[in-house]
Amino acid sequence: MGSNAFLLSILYLVVGIGVEVARRFYPVRFVQRLSLSLDSLPARALELVGAMEPLRTTYLDGKIPDYQVRLIFAGTTIVIIFLLAFVVGLFVGSLRTYVERRALRKSSQRGQG
User: Fold this and answer.
1) pLDDT tens-digit profile of 56-103?
2) How many independent structural domains does the chain possess?
3) How far apart are CA 26 and CA 88, in angstroms?
4) Which of 25, 67, 85, 113 is most buried, by the most CB atoms less than 10 A from its CB?
5) Is residue 95 part of a domain?
6) Which structural domain, as residue segments, surrounds residue 73?
């Protein structure tokens, strides 16, 4: 579970770095839209916890540079990926336990009957 989340977060960050480099050197419409779509996940998560508005205000006031906002978004994305991996792992583990217990119960009932 952890290794899959780690690989997914690395892949997401590599794609993000590639898109950011492409946005800096080849600012075509496709790359700009791709950049916005990659930023929407961490932005919505930060908005959900109430951290987006202070971050936006601080950025627009020029108190933090662009790369720090990108680092905050990258960290937020990593946290989201690991939380999703944890929730999925918990669900799959619970489902597996349920199926195993049910199969064990059925096999013990057949032995008695």
Assistant:
1) 999 999 999 988 988 898 889 888 888 888 888 899 889 999 999 998
2) 1
3) 38
4) 85
5) no
6) 2-84
